[in-house]
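Researcher: Batch entry, complex prediction.
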Amino acid sequence: MREKQPDRRRVLAGTAGLALAVTLRPAVGASLPRTETTEDAIRRFAGSARIRPGRVALDLPPLVENGNTVPLGVTVESPMTPDDHVRRIGVFNERNPQPNVVTVHLRPGAGRAQVATRIRLADTQRITAIAEMSDGTYWSGSADAIVTLAACLEG
Amino acid sequence: MARTLINLPKTAEPGAVVTIKTLLSHPMETGFRPGPDGRILPRNIVTAFVCRFEGEEIFRAELFPASAANPYLTFTWTATRSGRFSFTWQGDNGFDQTETAAITVG
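Model: C-alpha cells for the complex:
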C-alpha cells in the first residue's frame, strides 16, 4: 500500500520541473526547430562547388519593424549574355524554421541579373544569396537585418 | 481565382530592358504558425512561379514558406519582339493560376 502512495519529495520535484518547463516555454518558442541547417540547404543548391564572396549585392533594410513582409532585392554583377550569365540565385536565411527563402532561375534574355521580392524573417539574422553563373562558378553576398516584430511566432 | 497584379509597360523599344512586377493575392500560410486554437495551421503556399514569353520560359522562381504573404516578384526582360507573356503560379492544395499580358515592341 505504501509503495503506491506518491512520495512527497517526488511530487515536489515534479511540480518544480513542471514550473521550470512552463517558464522555459517562451525561450523554446524563440529558437524554432529547423527542418535543415543553412549549410545543408546551401550544399543542396551548390553541390560541392567552391562559393566565392563577391558579385552579389543584397538590398535589405538593416532594421525591420515587421518581419512578416520585408522587401529584398538581389543584384548580381553579370553582363547577362548567352556566354556569361546568371543561371540561378538562391537566397538562404539563418534562423527561420526552414533555411530556403527563394530560388530564381534566370535566362540571358533577362538583360539584368536583378530580382526583387518580399520575405518573412522570424528573427534578427543574416540573409545570404548565392548566384550560379553559366561558367559553373558560385558567388555569394549577404546582408544583416535586425527584426523587432518577428514573423511566424505571432499568430 | 486569386487576385493578381501584373505591371509592365505596354510598349518598349527593341533592346530595352523591361521590368516586370507581379503580385498574387495569397495567404502563404507557412505551416509553422499556430492558429487561434493553438494548433499549427496546415501549410498552404505557392511553391512555383513561371513567366513565359510566347511559350518560352524567361523566368522561374521556387518559393518557400519564408516568402511573405501575397508573393511579389520583380524581374527583367530584354525586349525583342511583340508578343504575350503568361504568368503561372502553382502551389499547395492544387493551386494553379495563369494570367497573361501583352507587350508591343518597336
